[in-house]
Amino acid sequence: MPRLLSFAVLLATWWIGSLVAGDAKLPPPPTVLTAMIAEARSGDLFFHLGVTLARVALAFTLAMSLGAAIGYLMGRVRLADRLGDPWLILLLNLPALVVIVLAYIWAGLTEVAAIAAIAINKLPTAVVTLREGARALDAALDEMATVFALPRWKKFRHVILPQLSPYIAAAARSGLSLVWKIVLVAELLGRPNGVGFEIGVAFQLFDIPRLLAYSLSFAAVVLLIETLLVQPFEARLSRWRPRAA
Amino acid sequence: MRLEVEIASKTFRNAAGEQHDVIAGVSFALEAGEVGVLVGPSGCGKSTMLRILSGLDPDFQGRISRPVGAPIGFVFQEPRLLPWRSVEENVRLVAPQADEAKLSVLFEILELNAHRNHFPGELSLGLARRVALARAFAVEPAFLILDEPLASLDAALAARMRDQISILMDNRSMITLLVTHDVGDAVRLGDRLFLLSPRPARVLAELPIRTPRGARRDAEIAAIKLDVMRRINGDPSARESA
Question: Choosing a second label site near A30 at 20 to 30 A (CA), which of A126, A196, B117, B234?
């Protein structure tokens, strides 16, 4: 109920804003909805959303698995930490735009370049978070597993992974939002399809209803994935914790 | 099977770089089926000794020979359960070979049947300790280590758990090593007591108890306790209440 209310307030603010600013700058909700329906009818909306989602999924998976592995290694092995740290700081502070532009220059305007560029942007945050998680592993439980001669895989699955899961969840959450933001820039700069490309076209034609139609559809998809996938996953991971009163 | 321990010395280096002697010469041996008890004041290095004996700490001067390749059961002072796994999962995880019949006997004796599906965070200390006991016994250990299993429990509960441990230890031919600062528990559960000095630890005396655990009368237990007290500090009344 509070969610619905806050959504209604947003809609009302938008409508009033469009009355004040004028249709040309901020079209009212019905105009945008009409544009959205037109794009959906032709199939374009779903095609571009699908392409963008596929890029997000690929880049996210790549960055998360690579970042988790590197982060875990850096958290456990001192030498790896020392070797990796300067690279990590460099990557963390490199602007997304630089990575994207260089990727397109070096690898051409290709799908591989786009996905690699997005993944490289997300990678360092995953590494930093997982490194912290690996450093915080409980030595007492480690000793327990050693004394009871738990096989390597079992130890990883039942002792180490559950301790890392809050860090993995945090990395996934912040990483996903980062990917959502960067994927459109990568598409705008060097891809012939996807939501970012469409927004670029709409911007050049000053077609604001279309621009908003794509932006809002994209936002809706993000919200949907957050509520249907990310949040239930987090709840499942923490079901053993005693609930706060 | 036999446990032979000869620790000549063990030193720790603290953060400031100073050396601390923890163990200054401890040697003893235990046969299979025997319950050895290390009795000593808090902080005398008992837990360090257990870490060495279980193979967790290879950094010491001396020699240990223990059953090779045979499972070790360890009941740590803090239960060290996996908070994200249920009671039953915690036990099954380390003892995949234990069948339902064996587990239900264990859970029955330790009164854990009602708690099988609880998470450790929902248990009291006494219950968590009993889960740790169930876990250690479930692996059918050749070498069982109990680190202060009855500490910080109220007297009634400690007595009940002592009886449960005693039941579990009977009919098993493993080497058992119990660490405690409570002389009463030591005399009731042990077959052979090793009295330790304050840090750095060495063995002050070795005291075999010939009467089988089940047949010890209260009078005999009291007599041995008195003897132990006298040997530790020559003043029986001072430690009686401990």
Answer: A196
